[in-house]
Amino acid sequence: MTDLALFLFTILVDLVLLLLVIRIFSSRWVSEYNQINKAIGIMTDRLISPLGHSSDPRRLAIVSIMLAIIIEFLSGLILFGMNCIKGPGILDLFLFSGLKILDLVFTIFFFSIILHAILSWLMPNQHSSASDFIRQLVIPVLNPIRRHLPVPAGLDFSPLIAIILIQSFSLLINENITAKILLNGIVCTNFQHLV
User: Fold this and answer.
1) Whole-model pTM?
2) How far apart are CA 38 and CA 58, in angstroms?
3) What are φ and ψ of residue 52, in 5° steps?
4) 23 touches 40 (CB < 8 A)
5) SS3 for 25-39, per residue?
C-alpha cells in the first residue's frame, strides 16, 4: 500500500471512529437540540441503523462501541495483512482494537477539556452550538473531580486534574499494554504507520 493510500485510508477510518465515539457520549450528555449533536447523529445513523435503530442512549452506546471496535479490528486486519510478514493474532488484534478505541476516548476528552477551558476564559458567558456542545460533553467528566476538590479563590482546578489523569491512563495504554501485545513476534515493513 502506498503512503498516500495508507494516509487516506487511515484518515477515513479515524474520522468514522471519531464520529462514532463522540456520538457515544454526546447522545447521553449533550442536548438533542444542539446542532453539532444533530450533525454527528445524521453522519453516523447510516452506520448504526443496520444494527438496529433505537432511541435508548444505553443501547445506542453499546452498538456504537461494538461498531467502532469492529471497524478498528477490520482496519487493523487490512493494514497488518498488507504491511506485515507476520502480524498479530486475531485475539491480540481484537484486544488492540479495544485499546485503540479507549485511547481515542481519552484523546477526545483531553482536547475537549482544553477547548472548554480556553473557551471559558475567552468567552465566559457566550453561548454557541460549539461551546455548548463541548461544555455539555466535559461537564460529566469534570463534576466528580469538582466534588472532591476545594475551590480556592474561585479557581477551578478540575480541568488540570482531569488532563493529568487522562494523560496518565493514555500513557499506560500506549507504552505498556500496546507494546506487550503487538511487539511480540510481529514483523512489519511500516510498523510506525500502523500503530
Assistant:
1) 0.85
2) 18
3) 110, 120
4) yes
5) HHHHHCCCCCHHHHH
For residues 183 and 175, is the Cβ–Cβ distance under 8 A?
no
What Å distances lie between residue 102 and 65, 95, 99, 127, 179, CA to CA? 10, 11, 5, 30, 15
Strand partners of residue 188: 84
The single residue listed with the C-alpha cell 485503540 is 100
Among candidate residues 67, 11, 57, the one with its CA nearest the CA of residue 32: 57
Local structure of 188: helix, strand or coil:
strand
pLDDT tens readout for residues 45-79: 888 877 766 667 778 888 889 999 999 999 988 88
Please report, for residues 65, 109, 140, 160, 176, the alpha-carbon distance to residue 21 in angstroms, rounded to integers and kept in the order given: 7, 11, 16, 23, 23
Amino acid at 102: L
